[in-house]
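Why do we care about 3D structure at all? Because function follows from shape, and shape follows, mostly, from sequence. That is the central idea of this module. The next example makes it concrete: a single protein chain, its amino acid sequence, and then its structure expressed as tokens.
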Amino acid sequence: MEKNEYGEQIKRYIIHSIYKDFFVFLKERGKNFWKDFCKYYIGDNKAFFDSYFQCFTYSSQMVRERVEKTMYEHYSYLEAITKRNPPEIIVERSIRKCIKSILLHEEINIYIIIGFFSADGFTIKIKGKPIIGIGLERMQDFSNLDIITAHEYAHLVRLRYGFETKNQFERTINEGIATVFSQIVFPEKTLPQHLFLSNAEFNSLLLRKDEIIGYFNETKGKKFYKKIKERERVKNFIGYFIVKQYLGARKDWTIEEILKIENSVFHR
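And the structure:
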């Protein structure tokens, strides 16, 4: 961790464990689920959720309908594993490793939440500033949480550098760069883990790698994901191998150079 002129450690990140407020909502709610959801969960976290719902285009009606169906029994297992293995500890360790790899001088905010429709990891902007979000609701354990955090850190760095993705092609390349970064930070993890694939899924895609990537390059991503079964699961796979092929032309890439690669170089 970076130190100031007095030798004191400078903390460059804040972890917001707002998932805990969701458990408070589940335990304190009365007959009006929506009112108590807004009181106990949205309340102090309104700035985050305003951006979160807007970014993912969730209408209040969609969220409200889901809240009305919420039962504590659906989340008791998740609460148990968060107590047994606090996610913020894993996230903090991962963020520290990321910062050692490439330091951002602006403060990093990480929000650990329980949503209803969120990805396991995402990067959005709150009041114009990118933040990292971690959604716990689909996780059965936290075995990939360190990789997810590193992956999203790469997206955050890219956003701070001014790289915005405009289409599916650029989003795929962005996923590839983020996967390369998480592999640098956690080299002991397997490639399927970095790609969020099972070994069987990875091997199946590997057998068709040239065909899949060839077709992707041919279409430049346009309509590609409508015609392939794997859709989201294949995005990281394709992006990773395209980026690795590009990086193979040189042996002396720095992490900063990798994270500053222009999307336009892949359109050639």
